[in-house]
Design brief:
The protein contains 16 helices and 14 strands. It has about 525 residues and is α+β, with helices and mostly antiparallel strands.
Length: about 525
């Protein structure tokens, strides 16, 4: 049986100006989504394929529900478009442009959400925006954000899991994110870092605060717990899995089933977090929020005034859409291809005492799917050997970025990263100290150490962030520039650092840019 919804009188007779403003707002948002459709589609794709950010599909309907809870606070008869919204949309467009030039998707995602948020202020005005400020802020949680925390969470989980094992009396050896106990070894992989759980609890914590809590100190307390509890729980989860495997002679929780045991435990902790929120509540769950409107602020506008507001909203929304389109167009122009050319990689035959092995087959290589040219060569010095990998881009553009989540200094996704950082205590002559990766392919190639650099124009750096910055500066000021990824690798043992150091000291920046540009 259909049950009629009992709308309050002030919503049953919505002012014509508001209805028209809603149409203008929908048109503005639709135009933003069309102009930035690649960014919107990329955001949806991440929600669809990522287990960490799949909750993004829930954020939009949750925001709709939170706005509905505030329906008594909406100033339905006071639509006053705000020209400042144009500047905010322009600012978000500038952020999108920066993200596009440096190929940082998260900046583009935040910029698109920021434009949608600013569109509310642009069309409806300050009082309307203030009434739904929290739902608009909550919309930011739809952006896939937090990958930077994966490595610190891996470090934290590995270190404190090992400390708990030692307190239990179990002998353990820790090396980066890999630790060994009697009977077997464990690796704190990216999936075990707990980012998925932290992100989900953070979003849940804000939602519980809005639904149940009214006092500010309870908000601060519960949001803090929403971050602290999942981090501590993930350490306890990892410790519990290792203990299960140890006590059962690695018959339980040693394979894929450790995900099941860990999932059950984390679900239980989440339930405790929700119950804690219920115990702190000082607001009834489910009902609308009471109105907070100053006396006399809801007076009706004259028909002439309403029409004036509609025309003003239409003009401001059009200007905002034009500014957003200008940002998008400039970004496309700045990343347009330079004159046609081809790339040829020409490695040196000798590097000091190291000789290139023309017939040698290299097992390790990098995976850079968008590179214009890439190759791997093996160099030998006596019984020692080092592999050199180079991936070159004539210019960076969408789908062909020097620093990207699709790029790996490994041949396939099955290769596990056991550690990362920056090489210290080594004098490499003309080269800066590189970043390193400790890899385990799990196959015949075994464990390997990889040192790598990025080269953008004439700038050589170990940092992907600095490479992004220099690429952005080049595109913004002078158009596209070339970019190169360089890596050297050798089997991991007690002498691997010395081998790589000796090999790297023979390289020159010009060797790392071993490319030739030829016009067809």
């Amino acid at each position: 049986m259909m049950v009629p919804i009992d709308l309050p009188p002030r919503i049953k007779h919505v002012a014509p100006a508001l209805r028209q403003a809603l149409l203008i707002w929908f048109g503005l948002v639709a135009s933003l989504l069309v102009v930035f459709r690649d960014t919107a589609w990329d955001l949806l794709t991440i929600w669809r394929v990522s287990a960490t950010y799949g909750h993004g599909f829930l954020i939009v309907p949750i925001v709709g529900y939170l706005i509905w809870r505030r329906r008594y606070r909406l100033p339905l008869n006071a639509v006053r478009p705000e020209p400042l919204g144009i500047l905010l949309i322009g600012g978000a467009g500038a952020v999108w442009l920066a993200g596009h030039l440096v190929s940082v998707s998260v900046l583009q995602h935040f910029a698109l959400v920021g434009m949608i948020q600013a569109s509310v202020l642009t069309v409806f005005g300050w009082r309307f925006t203030q009434a739904i400020a929290f739902p608009l802020i909550y919309l930011l949680l739809a952006v896939p954000f937090g990958e930077f925390a994966v490595a610190p969470l891996q470090d934290l989980t590995a270190v404190y899991t090992v400390e708990l094992l030692r307190l239990t009396g179990i002998p353990v050896y820790l090396e980066n994110w890999r630790f060994v106990i009697p009977g077997g070894a464990f690796l704190v992989a990216e999936a075990c870092a707990g980012l998925r759980y932290v992100v989900a609890c953070f979003a849940l914590g804000f939602l519980i605060c809005d639904l149940l809590l009214a006092r500010w100190w309870k908000w601060v307390l519960f949001i803090s717990l929403s971050l602290l509890v999942p981090i501590v729980a993930n350490v306890i989860r990892a410790y519990g899995i290792v203990m299960l495997a140890y006590m059962t002679d690695f018959q339980i929780a040693a394979g894929a089933d450790h995900l099941i045991y860990g999932g059950i435990f984390l679900s239980f902790v989440t339930l405790i977090l929700i119950l804690l929120g219920l115990s702190l509540r000082d607001r009834e769950l489910g009902g609308p929020l009471p109105a907070q409107v100053r006396a006399g602020s809801q007076g009706p506008q004259s028909l002439k005034a309403q029409r004036g507001r509609v025309l003003e909203s239409l003009l401001i929304a059009g200007l905002a859409a034009a500014i957003a389109l200008a940002s998008h167009s400039y970004g496309r122009w700045a990343t347009s291809p330079p004159s046609p050319s081809t790339v040829s990689l020409t490695p040196a035959d000798t590097l000091g005492a190291w000789q290139r092995q023309v017939q040698a087959r290299t097992v390790w290589t990098g995976t850079f799917p968008g590179a214009d040219a890439k190759d791997t060569w093996r160099y030998a010095r006596g019984r020692d050997h080092v592999d050199l990998f180079v991936a070159h881009y004539r210019y960076e553009r969408p789908g062909a970025e020097l620093v990207s989540a699709a790029n790996r200094f490994a041949a396939d996704e099955s290769t596990r990263i056991e550690g990362r950082g920056r090489v210290t205590g080594r004098d490499l002559g003309h080269l800066p100290r590189p970043s390193y990766l400790l890899l385990d392919s799990g196959a015949g190639d075994g464990r390997r150490i990889v040192w790598y650099w990025y080269k953008v124009g004439d700038v050589l750096t170990h940092s992907g962030a600095f490479a992004k910055f220099h690429g952005f500066k080049a595109k913004l000021l002078g158009g596209a520039t070339s970019a190169t990824a360089i890596a050297i690798s050798t089997p991991y043992d007690d002498e691997s650092a010395q081998r790589l150091s000796n090999f790297a000291s023979q390289l020159r920046p010009s060797d790392l840019m071993a490319t030739q540009m030829r016009n067809p």
